[in-house]
Amino acid sequence: MDVVALLKGHRSIRKFTDQPIDDELAESIIRAGLSAATSSNLQGTTVIRVRNPETRAAIAELAGGQTYVETAAAFFVWCADLHRSAVACEMAGGEFRPGMTEHFVIAATDCAIAAQSAVCAAESVGLGICYIGGIRNDPAKMTELLGLPDQVAPLFGLCLGYPDQDPAIKPRLPLSVTLKEETYDESGDVAGIEAYDEQMRAYYHERTNGKIDRTWSADMSALLGKESRPHMRDYLQGQGLNKK
Amino acid sequence: MDVVALLKGHRSIRKFTDQPIDDELAESIIRAGLSAATSSNLQGTTVIRVRNPETRAAIAELAGGQTYVETAAAFFVWCADLHRSAVACEMAGGEFRPGMTEHFVIAATDCAIAAQSAVCAAESVGLGICYIGGIRNDPAKMTELLGLPDQVAPLFGLCLGYPDQDPAIKPRLPLSVTLKEETYDESGDVAGIEAYDEQMRAYYHERTNGKIDRTWSADMSALLGKESRPHMRDYLQGQGLNKK
Hints:
2 copies of one chain form a homodimer. Chain A is built from 11 helices and 5 strands, in the order ααβααβααβαβαβααα.
C-alpha cells in the first residue's frame, strides 16, 4: 500500500453506509492511535466511545446539526486529559500543580497526534473519517453528557464508517507558503494566497455548479473576524486547565 | 502493508544512519501531512525546515542537549500559525480578532494532526522519527532563530532519518483506562495504573539491566509536581495567542 498517496488523498467523509465496524477493528484502530508518540510518556488522551443514540443525537445537535455524528458506524470523543496523570501523581505521593498552560499544550498535542494516528489506521483499512470540532460549540454540555472530571477537556469528535460518497480532494495552500526553509520568510505568501484563492474559487464553482463564489481569504475573514467560541477560555479554566 | 500494525509498532528513533533523505521524498512527506483534516480549512500549520548546522546546534542545545536534532537527516519545526490566516483575513477586507483561545486550540490541533500524518507517511517508507517537545524550553529563542512573526508559535520539532537503532516498543496504558464507553467512568483507573506501573517497572529493568527502578506514576509525579515551562503562558500571549 502506498501510504503517502493514501494520506495525500484524504477527504472528510460525511455520508456512511450501514455497514457496521467490528468492535475488534475499532479497538485496534484506537490502540494504533494511542501507540503514537506522547510527550514525556504523559499519554494525555482519553477516548470515549459513544454508542447511545440519544447522546449521539444531542452531540450532533450541539455540533451544529452534523447528522453524521448519529449515522456513522462509530463515534468517538477525543479528550485532552491531565486528570489521570494527576491521579497517578498522587498515587506516587506527589503534588499535582494544576493549570499550567504548558501541560494543556502537552495534553492537547498528545490527543491530536493520537487521533490522527488512529485516522491513518482507519483510512488504511478503507474507512472514512470526519473530525467534529463542533463539539467545542458547547464544551460544558459535552462535559455533562460524558461526565468529564476536572483536568479533562473534549477536543473533537471523530466519526468512523464505510464511505457512501466520493467527494473531491479539497486543495491545500501551496507548499511555497506552508513549508519554509530556515526562517519564516513570508515574502511570497500574498502571491501564494492569491493563487490559492483562485484555485478554491474554481473548486467551489465546480462543486456547486457555479452557485458558490468563495475564496479562502473570504473564508478566513468570516472565521477570524468574529469571536469564535468565546467561551473556550473560561471553559478550559473552569476545568482547571490553561490558566497560568 | 499492514498500516495498523506499523503504527502499533511505533518507537521514537534517536540514532540515525548517515543516509540522506531525498528532498523530493521529504517534500512528499510534508505534503501528505498537510493533506490531513484541518478545522474550517484554516490550515493553521507552518513547517520550517532547518538545514543550517549552526541553527540545528542551537536548537539541539536549547532542547536540552538532544544531539539527534543535529544528526537526523532532516529536521523540521512545526508551528501553530494564525498569522497567515490573519493576512488572508485582511486581504479579504476583514478585521482579524487576535488572541482567542479557540483560535489557538484550532491552530495547535491542526498542527499536531498534520505532523502526525507526516509521521505516518515517513514511517511507512522506513524512516524513523522523533518529536522534539524540548523546543518549548525556550520558545522566545526559537522565535528569534526562525524569525517568527506574531500569531505563530513553535509547537515541536521533528527529526527524520533512517534508523540506526532498534529500540523496544514502550508499553502504553491499558485500553481499559484510556478507551471508555459512554462516559468517563474512572472506577477501574487506579487498578489499571497500578498494573501499568508494574509493566513499566519491568520495561525499565530490562532496558537498563536492573539499574533503573521507575514507574509511570513516579514519572508523572516528577513531571506534574513541578511548574513545567512556566514561561509558556506569557510567551504565547506575547505572540498574541491564547489570551482571551
